[in-house]
Design brief:
The complex is a heterotrimer of chains A (441), B (303) and C (316).
Chain A lengths: L1 H26 L14 E5 L3 H18 L3 E5 L3 H10 L6 E5 L3 H7 L18 H5 L11 E7 L1 E5 H6 L8 H13 L11 E4 L8 H12 L5 E5 L2 E4 L5 H12 L13 H9 L3 E6 L4 H7 L5 E4 L10 E10 L6 H12 L1 H9 L8 E2 L6 H5 L2 H12 L1 E3 L7 H16 L6 H18 L5
Parallel strand pairs in A: 1-2, 1-3, 6-9, 11-13
Antiparallel strand pairs in A: 3-11, 4-11, 4-12, 5-9, 5-10, 7-8
Chain B lengths: L1 H5 L3 H4 L1 H5 L13 H28 L19 H8 L2 H31 L6 H13 L2 H13 L13 H7 L3 H12 L3 H9 L4 H9 L4 H17 L2 H6 L8 H9 L6 H22 L7 H4 L4
Chain C lengths: L9 H4 L8 H40 L2 E2 L7 E2 L3 H7 L2 H32 L4 H10 L1 H4 L2 H11 L7 H8 L14 H25 L4 H10 L3 H29 L3 H6 L11 H10 L4 H31 L1
Antiparallel strand pairs in C: 1-2
Classes of the chains: A alpha/beta (441), B mainly alpha (303), C mainly alpha (316).
Chain lengths: 441, 303, 316
């Protein structure tokens, strides 16, 4: 009896495991899906929170009114996770609007269709430098520029004036101002509870690597070098000056906010928002929330102070991507043509509370004039004169992550002389990553 | 009937002495050094576990909640955070959460009770293996079954139905939870066999056995799996995300973690949302904890 | 006293039912077997669809370079090799074990103490038990933000102020490479202990009160009462708590992610955070799957170990 029961339950178990294997086996063909038109409205996804999604919706409403083409728009906050899911079932949305830096990741996965630049109406209104950023490793174009922006330095004007200090012109000035904010009680409450810079020094999502790159470039260094022809190599060892300056800021108590080494932007930004720090390097998307919490008159947007070389800052932006499963050629062309046209770009800046086009890519549109806000002139000028973006042809995420980990390690041990050795390790890590991406020169 | 037999006489005669044997440490209900010690400890425990939450409440009503200090009262009282939360559509997400948690919990408890009954009150070969499979379902890091699970949800094998975008896409997967089955069967094992034997001789069938004899004796365990089951469904992050067709299907938990990464929204709104998310779980706990504390009546049924 | 049976009735459960006729037994057995499987069907179907199919598929993916649009490429054990040769993964393994053991034991002891302290029916205890449950019902992201404030590393941070009164500190907490992991463990214990308290409280309801009374009559001390009556009766609850806590703490992710993001200097990197940055951030589902399978195997071995240990103790 016992043995009979035993064999029966064993059989049942084996059966259930086998059927599990069988059922999954059915679902996993490996052929690439064909792009075809299913007759549904064109599906557009963008990485957007509630506010940005409202602007997008208004923008596409205008588009539909103009062209009669229906759009199914989704603002997806967790875009990359959702895309992975949709990719697994081989049904990507038709158009994705996302970071320009995502291009390398998407092309390496085969998510995207090539784009014929000349087929985009008004393609010559978009500067060649921007079109270059939409090239994959093979030199083909895989996206259409949609919006750009740079990081800018924001300073508590009232604090600075109270302490009688000038607008910082150099990295040394900036460090001095930070120290003064930390030690001279700029908010006048009699307590030592203010700090200099707001820094997201966490390794989470590679934030530290993202924040630091501007300062490294300003001192003539970089952790990644573009060798041309889609090949790159690590160059962190040449960035000692910039990294040393950054380490000094972390190791001078008060120059950065306490806990900066483990703070992601969500933990760091409130320090500036609530008047605990007086300096932040961030994107113009934060203007509206700082205006609301601090007040427009309390802070100033300045041209970023110079390092030993220049005042390069990080430029970022969004591209329009056409996915591999998109079979709606005509609608796609209409959407793209509208989004990069002067009308579409203007609507993206003004149709909602939060602009989704920050600085327009269409050279026929002037951001400062549209916003009628001198702060945007600073952003626009920095973008034109002194900005640099992360390479987009390769998958930059792991490289940014490696940089964040290395910098975090260097800055967390103030007593050690670890800049040179830490950067050497970073070089090794980056080169390994490049090799695995077939992008090492 | 077993109650009167197994219950010693002492309690009815000397109620004050009986109370001393109600708790493992024999806390006395009378004022004395013992009682003072207990009160002091309770105050300490309260401070450690509950005070941080005063900060959530005060932060949710504060214009600018401070990132450096815990304040027990909002410095500048405002309802702006809740207005912003409304703008972000958090109430809609709360409704999604309630629907999913209600349906999911009902299914989960039913499934768990059935499975536990057969795993604990029956003896069959391979039982240990089945129990291990049950535990296995809890060990899978859900991040890893995320992608394959999204495939299953989009196209159920053999059935060919897509669940994506419907509440069933969250409710069905949370229906199976090793934790509940495990807890339920561990507790059911403790019920003496002669109760069941007696009922069986009276010709009681399996369903009646389960619902009228076994389950009433498992109230503490039902309370445990009710509370934790609710919270398990409530806290699901990845599942609602991959089951969603578009963001309007998100649950409050998903929406909150999205808010956390949106620096333009501000920490006050996150705290306001967290407060909204806490209340249902807390209510569930408040109601279900009754079943886990030895009451006068339930105390008489066992032992 | 030492061998005091916790449940005198239990020996009867296992007593063989010798009195029955073999034929009747056979009939009952086949009916029983049907009932067993009928009751298991809902769990089996849901488990098959939503757990085991995805799991088998996940294991399959761990042997592939996953790229749905270019065709998956079979890479054998390459993904496993890249996990096992990543030095940060190995560091993360150490941290995971330290964090897991500390959190599990800490939350067990604190949860047990809480349950003993708060057992009872008084209304004040009801309210207290509810407030103590607050850490469990709060979104982890928010718990993280609150503890980041409590751990604020200047001398006037909330916890450092308390340490200051005691003449200690200030400590770096999350920001120091030596203290960060322990600081996370404290948060884990704080949010895990009430969880365990609930299960142990439920277990305490099952302790036979008459045994307490006879112990009182025998003049046993509180300690003896705990040692010889309460603890043995709680054994099933404690096995549950230990098993679940071990499974949970090996998978800690969100609390680490919101508290430190793995820093400073990688001192709090755990298996899941490493898996996240190595696999998901760079879209390498194959490597992430391999890391997950390894974690699954370790957890499985550990659980089977705990169960066997529990069995052996029970048999003794």
């Amino acid at each position: 009896m016992d043995s009979k029961l035993k064999s029966r339950s064993r059989a049942a178990l084996a059966l259930s495991l086998a059927s599990a294997a069988l059922l999954t086996g059915c679902g996993s063909g490996s052929s690439a899906p064909a792009a075809k038109d299913d007759g549904q409205p064109i599906e557009v996804w963008a990485r957007a929170g509630t506010d940005a999604a409202t602007t997008y919706s208004a923008l596409f409403k205008e588009f539909t009114a103009k062209t009669g083409v229906q759009v199914n728009f989704q603002g997806v906050p967790d875009l990359d996770q959702q895309l992975q899911t949709r990719a697994a079932s081989k049904k990507l949305p038709d158009i994705v609007i996302n970071d320009s830096a995502a291009l390398g990741n998407y092309t390496s996965q085969g998510y995207l269709q090539k784009i014929d630049k000349s087929s985009v109406a008004g393609n010559d209104a978009i500067p060649d430098s921007l079109w270059k950023e939409t090239q994959g490793l093979d030199g083909s174009t895989y996206g259409v520029p949609f919006s750009r922006q740079t990081m800018v330095t924001l300073i508590r004007k009232d604090w600075r004036e109270k302490l009688g200090l000038p607008v910082p012109k150099t990295q040394e000035d900036l460090a001095k101002l930070a120290a003064a904010f930390a030690t001279q009680d700029p908010d006048g409450n009699g307590q030592a509870d203010t700090y200099g810079m707001t820094v997201p020094g966490s390794t989470e999502r590679g934030y530290f690597g993202w924040w630091a790159s501007s300062y490294l470039w300003q001192d003539g260094g970089a952790y990644l070098k573009d060798d041309g022809n889609g090949k790159y190599s690590a160059s962190a060892s040449g960035a000692q000056a910039g990294v040393t300056w950054i380490k000094q800021q972390f190791c001078t108590p008060g120059n950065t906010q306490p806990g900066a080494l483990t703070a992601a932007t969500s933990a760091a930004t409130p320090f500036f928002q609530t008047g605990k720090t007086g300096i932040i390097l961030t994107g113009p998307y934060n203007f509206s929330s700082f205006d609301a919490s601090l007040g427009k008159d309390k802070y100033e947007v300045i041209e970023t102070p110079k390092g030993s070389k220049d005042n390069t800052v990080l430029a970022e932006g969004e591209n329009i991507y056409v996915t591999a499963t998109n079979g709606k050629k005509d609608q796609t062309k209409q959407v793209i043509d509208f989004l990069v046209s002067p009308d579409g770009q203007k609507a993206g800046m003004t149709a909602g509370k939060q602009p989704i086009v920050r600085v327009p890519v269409n050279s026929g549109v002037d951001a400062a004039a549209v916003y009628n806000d001198p702060r945007w002139t600073v952003v626009q000028d920095a973008l034109k004169n002194s900005s640099k973006s992360f390479p987009s042809a390769i998958n930059f995420v792991p490289i940014k992550q490696a940089a964040a980990e290395a910098l975090n390690k260097i800055a967390s041990d103030c007593a050690a002389d670890n800049v040179a050795s830490g950067l050497k390790d970073l070089d090794t890590a980056i080169n390994n990553e490049l090799t695995s991406q077939n992008a090492k020169s | 009937m077993t109650q009167t037999i197994s219950r010693p006489k002492a309690r009815a005669a000397k109620p004050s002495a009986g109370a001393r044997f109600d708790t493992a440490l024999g806390w006395s209900p009378r004022l004395g050094p013992n009682m003072v010690l207990r009160i002091l400890l309770c105050v300490l425990v309260f401070c450690i576990f509950a005070l941080p939450f005063v900060a959530i409440i005060s932060g949710a009503f504060d214009r600018n909640s401070s990132p450096t200090d815990i304040s027990l009262l909002p410095k500048s009282f405002t309802l702006r955070n809740f207005e912003a939360a409304t703008q972000q559509g958090l109430w809609g997400y709360l409704l999604n959460s309630l629907v999913v948690a209600g349906g999911g919990l009902l299914l989960q408890m039913t499934v768990s009770v059935f499975a536990a009954y057969s795993l604990s009150r029956k003896k069959f070969r391979g039982q240990a293996l089945v129990l291990l499979l049950v535990l296995l379902t809890m060990m899978l890091p859900e991040e890893i079954i995320g992608i394959p699970l999204s495939l299953v949800l989009g196209d159920l094998p053999l059935l060919g139905i897509s669940l994506r975008g419907s509440v069933l896409a969250v409710i069905l997967p949370v229906g199976i939870w090793g934790f509940s089955i495990f807890i339920m069967s561990e507790f059911m094992k403790e019920i003496p066999g002669e109760i069941e034997e007696a009922a069986r001789l009276d010709g009681v069938g399996e369903f009646r056995m389960l619902f009228t004899i076994i389950l009433p004796l498992c109230k503490p365990a039902l309370g445990v799996i009710g509370i934790f089951g609710f919270m398990m469904v409530w806290d699901q992050y990845l599942l609602p995300l991959i089951a969603a067709n578009d963001p309007s299907n998100y649950t409050l938990t998903v929406a909150l973690s999205v808010l956390r990464n949106d620096t333009t929204v501000g920490p006050g709104v996150l705290l306001a949302g967290a407060l909204m998310a806490m209340i249902p779980s807390l209510l569930v706990y408040l109601f279900l904890q009754r079943s886990m504390i030895r009451g006068i009546t339930s105390g008489a049924t066992k032992g | 006293m030492t061998t005091a049976p916790t449940k005198p009735a239990r020996s009867l459960t296992r007593a063989p039912d010798t009195g029955q006729a073999p034929a009747r037994r056979k009939l009952r057995n086949s009916k029983q077997l049907l009932a067993i499987w009928l009751f298991l069907v809902p769990a089996a179907v849901l488990g098959l669809y939503f757990k085991f199919i995805p799991m088998v598929e996940g294991i399959r993916l761990s042997f592939f370079k996953v790229q749905p649009f270019l065709g998956d490429v079979f890479v054998g054990l390459d993904n496993y090799v890249s996990v096992l040769t990543d030095s940060r993964f190995m560091e993360a393994l150490g941290h995971t074990v330290v964090l897991g053991v500390t959190q599990t034991l800490g939350a067990l002891v604190v949860g047990f103490a809480l349950a003993l302290l708060l057992e009872g029916q008084a209304r004040s205890l009801w309210i207290l038990r509810t407030t103590i449950f607050l850490p469990v019902v709060t979104a982890l992201a928010v718990v993280g933000e609150i503890w980041r404030i409590l751990y604020f590393p200047t001398a006037d941070g909330p916890l450092n102020s308390i340490l200051g009164w005691l003449g200690l500190g200030p400590m770096q907490f999350l920001n120091g490479t030596d203290t960060a992991l322990w600081s996370i463990a404290v948060v884990g214990i704080w949010s895990g202990a009430p969880y365990n308290m609930v299960i142990i409280l439920a277990g305490l309801t099952g302790v036979d009160r008459s045994l307490y009374e006879s112990a009182g009559v025998d003049g046993a001390s509180i300690w003896q009462r705990l040692r010889y009556i309460t603890l043995p009766a709680l054994r099933p609850s404690l096995v549950i708590v230990l098993t679940l806590a071990a499974i949970r703490s090996l998978r800690s992710f969100t609390e680490v992610y919101v508290l430190t993001g793995g820093g400073p200097a990688g001192s709090t990197e755990v298996w899941m955070t490493r898996m996240y940055s190595l696999g998901f951030q760079r879209n390498d589902i194959g490597v992430a799957s391999a890391a997950a399978v390894l974690l699954l195997v370790v957890t499985l071995l550990l659980t089977v170990g705990t169960q066997l240990l529990g069995k052996r103790k029970a048999a003794r």
